[in-house]
Amino acid sequence: MYQSYLFPIAYAFIAFPFVAALFTLPFLIVQYRKYGYIHKVRAITLYLLLLYLMNAFFLVILPLPSSRHNPALANGDLQLLPLQFVYDFLKETSVSFAHPSTYWHMFVERAFLQVIFNILLTIPFGMFLRYYFRVRWVNGLILSFLLSLFFETTQLTGIYGIYDHAYRIFDVDDLLCNTLGGMLGFMIAEWIAKRLPRIEHLDLHIDRSSKRVSYTRRAVAFMIDLFIWYTLMILLTLNDVPVPFWISSSIYYILIPYWTHGITVGKWIVRIYVSSTHPDHSRVSLLALTIRYGLLYWVFLGLNNILSDTIVLPDIHTFWRALCSLLLFVIDISFLMHLMSCFFRKGSLLFYEKLSHTKQHIQWPELEQPSADTQNKPNS
């Protein structure tokens, strides 16, 4: 029976890196928007929550039926009698209450283990609710019940229509045990939270002046901006606007940031902006933006665009195709080496930042300060 629990857990750990990769982008955006930076305690806690939810979900749905056209359950798919597990235990158990030496048998019996499993399944959920999300016990009770209801509904509907019939019973006792587990976890978190950093106090003593715009943050902004810019370039192309590459990059990366004081959509989402490095010119000038993004998009990406288009021309001589390929390789590998060099040298600027005398800064949000009552009372 223990093998049936280990099998879904193994699959959850295998799938976790792929799900975590999909989770990372929205996680980064939310953290940057809400707090202005990434705190390790928050990151570890939320990724542990993701791992737990994956394990819980896999334990509920696996193993799957061998075919989508699975037969209906012989004894029905609903068990709506509360505390039916007590009857099942008394019916199946080999424990004799008159002989204490037989009590240990219950720890290997199906009915007992199923109840314990359903309680243990949601204990971590209650702990996360209390420690990280700081919910009240009533909300914890409701959310634990809703999580259990989601699990039971998933089984009853054959994973929402993927399978013809339910392949596990919708059991009201599971709702009771899962909800109980969530509340036990809620109470356990009361004790654990006293030995861990308080979530609402993580931002009280951070030194904002020491925080720099990370390359991860810049990459997120770059991907968002690249998507919007590319969409704009396609629209200009469809409307027969001449040289759409140059016009779209001028509008999106030079004119708009000049009007918005160094902010693009991607930068706004992750709370960063471009400013001048000159102490008496905090606002970035149109000339500085032209140099900065002209070097990056018109020179670097522009050369990439021209050389790539030249290489695929059908009538080009082999010599020129090879020369363009070599130039493209040299340009890209040089930029990559420069990027890696700046990445490992803290505080160094990229070439287009140095030449334009510009730099990126964090646009800090107004963080909510804990009330005096919250700061003085114990972590409960």
UniProtKB/TrEMBL annotation:
Coiled-coil regions, chain positions: none
UniProt keywords, alphabetically: Membrane, Transmembrane, Transmembrane helix
Annotated TM spans: 6-32, 44-64, 111-133, 140-163, 175-193, 219-238, 250-274, 286-307, 319-344
Pfam families per record: VanZ
Membrane among keywords: yes
Domain VanZ-like: 50-191
InterPro entries the UniProt entry points to: Teicoplanin_resist-assoc, UCP031578_Vanz/RDD, VanZ-like
The keyword Transmembrane belongs to this UniProt entry's keyword annotation: yes
Protein name: VanZ family protein
Organism field: Paenibacillus kyungheensis
